[in-house]
Protein 1
Amino acid sequence: MEVMMRKAATGGQRRPGGALLGAALLLLLGFFQAASSIHFEVKDENNKTCIMADLSINFSVEYETVSKKVIPALFLLSEKALVNKNSSTCGKENISAPLLAIQFGDQQLRMNFTRNGLRYQVAELVFIYDLSDKVLFPDASDNGTKEVSSQNTDISANNNSTYKCSNPHLIKMGKVNATFHNIKIEAFVTNNTYSLKETACSEDVTPTVAPTPAPITPKPTVLPTPLPPPSVGQYSVTGPSGMCILAKMGLQLNISYSKKDNKDDLYVFNIDPKDTHYNGTCQNASATLSLSSNKTNLEFQFALNTSTNQFYLARVTLNTTLPSEAKDPNVQVANGSLMYLKTTARKSYRCNAKQTLQITSNFSINTFELQVQAFDVVGEKFGSAVECQLDENGMLVPIVVGAALAGLVLIVLIAYLIGRKRSHAGYQTI
C-alpha cells in the first residue's frame, strides 16, 4: 500500500483591476483571506486511492501537572503530520473497513470508516497522545501514553460525495477536544479524486425557519441604555524566564440568560481596571492571564504554535453572577477551541476599534483599544503591531474617499482647461 501527503491550500484569489474603490470593496469583504489544511491520501496495492482528507484540527488536552493543577495543552495538527503506513489501510470489501492513521510526533489520530446503505461515516475517531512529550505537556505528572475515542463523530456523507465542513466541528473524546475546521473528507473514493458532489456538515447548513401562520404585531420593546465604552486597563504576566503576556484593553462582557419568568434577557457590564486584580502563569507553549473583579473571574489562555511560529487566544473561561432575576444566577462557561487574535510571535496584535469575540452561544466579549502580545515580550514593551481587519477598514475608507475627491477635482480642472482652450480658438485677431 502506498500513502501520500502534501500541503493543500484553499482560498480567494486577487482579481486584477485598477479601480481603487473596487480594491477597497474586495478588502472590506475579506476576499484576500485564505485557509490552509494538510492533505492526506491512502492507496491500495493497485495504486488506487480509497481515502482522501484535507484536515485542519485544533486539539485541547486536559492533563494534571506535578503541582496537581489540571490545565489544557493546546496545539494544532502539525504541518509535518504524515500518514502512518503501518496502520492505514483501504480494507477489504465485507471483511475490513478503511482506516486513515495520521502520525505527528508521538501523537496519532485514527479515522475508522464504515459504509451502510447509501452513506459512509467515520464510525470511530481515536486519538493517542504521549504525556512524556514535554513540549506539548510541560510539567505533566504522568509520563504514560493515553488513548481516547469517540463513536459520535457526526461525520457522514452520501456515497460518492465529499464531506465538507468550513465552520468549526467539535468532537469530544474524554479529556480531549478536537475541533475540525475547513476540512474535506471522502472514503471509498471511486475515481482517485474528490467527487464533484458534496455533503455539507450540519454546522454549514443554514436552518430553515418555518413561516408563522399569521403576522403578529410585536409589543414595543424598551431597549436598555447602552453602556459607555469601558476604561482601558493594562495587564502583564511575568514568569521565571521573563514577561510572557503584555496587554492593554477595555473589556465589556455580554451574557444572554433566562429570567425566572422564562423570558430572555441580556446582561452587559464593563470590567473596571481600578477594581480588578490580575495574575497568571507562563509556560513554554501556553500563557494565562486571570482577571478578578468583584464577583467575576475571567481567564484568557494564549497558545504558541511552534510549527507556524504564531500565538493566538485559545481558551476563555468565565465565572460570574447574574442579576437576582435570573433563573440560574451562577454562570460558569468556557471554550478551549478558539483561535482569536492570531499573530506572528514577537509581534503584538492591535485593534483600536470595537471588536466582538464570540466565546459561546450566550457569551461574548467586546474589546476596545486592544493591544496584546503573548510570549517573547522583550524589554516589557509591545513588539511591532499587526493591525486587525476592522482598523484597516477604518483607515481604508478615508483613503478611498480622499482619492475619489482628488480624482473629481482633477477631472473638473481638466474639463475647465479644455473648455477654456476651445473658447479661445473661436476668435481671430483683427
Protein 2
Amino acid sequence: MTLLSHSARERVRAAPPKGRWSPFPWVYLVPLLAIEGVFVFAPLSSALAVSFQRYDYFVPGGWIGFDNYIWALGNSGFLNAVGVTTFFTAFATIFTFAFGFGLALMFERDGRSSSLMRTIVLIPYFISMLVGSMLLRWVFSEDAGLFGLLLESLGVEPFSVFGDPNTAMAALVANAVWRDSAFAMMLLLAGLKSIPSSLLWAARVDGASYFYTFRRIVLPLMRTAILITIVRLVIFYVNILTFPLVLTGGGPNGATETLVLWMFRRGFEEYAIGRANAASIIIFLINIALVAIIIFLFNLGSKRR
C-alpha cells in the first residue's frame, strides 16, 4: 500500500468531493468580467440605446425606433461604404496573409540571420498607424514623393495616386500589407514552430517532396494558426479607420470611404450621434456574421478532408 505524506493527505481532505460545485474558481473571473462589463458591455448597451433615439449634437431628441437603422441601410453612402469595405478587406487580407506566410516560411529556421530579418520585418508593425499612413502619403505624393521621382526616372509622367479610384484603393491596400504582414508572420510562425520536427524528418526520410509535405503535413497542422490569423485580419480591416482617414481621406468621391470612416463622419462631422450609433451596431453585427462564416467554412473544409 502506498503511504501518503501528511501534506498530501491534507490536500486530499481539503479537496471538494467529486461532483460538488465549488464557487472558489469563479472568484478569479470576477476582475475579468468587471473589465469586460465596464469597457465592452456598458458602451455597447449605451450605443444600442442611443441608436434608437434622435440624438443630434449630443442632445437626446426622443425615441424613434428603427428609423436610424432604416435610414442607414437605405443610404447610398452607407451602401457604397459596404462595397468599399468588402473590396478592401478581401484584397488586404489575401495579400497580407500571403506575404506573412511567405515571411514565416523564409525565417522559420532559428539563426542569427533569421533573427535579424525578423526584427527588420517587424519594424513597420511597431510604427504607429498614424505615422505610417502619413509616411506613405508622402511617398505617393505627386509633387515630391518617392513614387513620383521613381516614375520620372523611368520616363513616365507622374500622376496623382490619390486622384484615381483604382490607384487610391491600391495605395490603401499597400498600406495595410506593408504594415500588417509582420503581424501575420508572427502568428503563422508560431503555428510553424508548433509542428513536431519528427513528422517533417519522417516525411523527408520517406522521400516526400517539399510541396507534398507542405500540403499534407504543414497546412493541416497549421489550421488553427491560419484560422486565427484570417479572423484577426478580417476583423481589423473591417473596422479600420486610421488608414483611409489619413492616407486617402475616403476619396476620391468616396472610392476609399470604409464603413467605420463613414460612421466616423456621421458622428464627428455631422454630429448625428443616433445615426452613427446605429451604423456602429450594424458594423458590430457584420463582424459577428463574418467570424461565424469564416469558422463555418473552415469546419466545412476540415470535414471534407
Protein 3
Amino acid sequence: MKMPRLRIATYNLQKCVGLDMRRRPDRSLQVINSLGADIVVLQEVDKRLPPRPAALPHDLVERDGWKILPFGAPGGSLGWHGNAMLVRADLSVLHTQHLDLPGLEPRGAILAEMKTRLGPLRVVGVHLGLVRRYRLLQIKAVLRHVARRPAMPLILAGDFNEWGNRAAIDSAARGVSFALTPPSYPAPRPLARLDRIAHSATLATVATGTLRERPAHIASDHLPVWADLEQSQ
C-alpha cells in the first residue's frame, strides 16, 4: 500500500520584486502554484515600511485556492515579521500563533498546528537573523517554545540565512534533522543552502528539490525549496 505523502515548500519572495526589479505578485504566485505543495512557508511577504501592507495581495492568493493562515492584520500584512503560511483547503488548522525571537534586529516566527494526511502536524516558519550568534539563539528559542506545546510531529522551514558549515545549526536544532535540500541562493546560480527544511524523527524525507523553471529563475533572488515527507517507518 502506498504511504501518504505531503509536500512542504519554503520560499523567500523578496517582497515580490524580481531580479528584473519589477514587483510582480502574479509572477510570485505563479511560482508558488507550480510547486505542487500542500503547505508553503513564505518569507518577505510584506512591504518594508509601516503599516507593512502585503506585497502578495490576499485576494490574489485566495483566488487560487490557498488558505492564508491568520498571522497578519486583516486587510493589511500577510504575515508576522514578513513570515506567512499558505495551506491547501483540505488541511484542517487547529492552532496558530506567532513568536518574537531574540536578536538585535526584529525577527519573528510563525507556528501552525493542523490535521493532515500524515496525521497531526506542527509547522514553524522562520526567517533567521544575519548574525550567527543570534540565529542559533533564535532556533533554540523556537524549540523551547515547541517543547511546551503538546507532543506532535514537527517541521521547521524557512530562510535560515546560514552560509557556512551545517554543524552549528545542527547542534542548535536538537530534536530535528535537516533534509538534504539543494542550494537555493542566488537564484540564477545557486551556491548556498539558505533555505532549509528540518523535521522530527517521526517524519521521513523521501524527495527534495528546488523549482528552477521560468519564472522562478527571476521572480526572486531565492529559489523555492520543497520536500516530500512521509511518516517514518
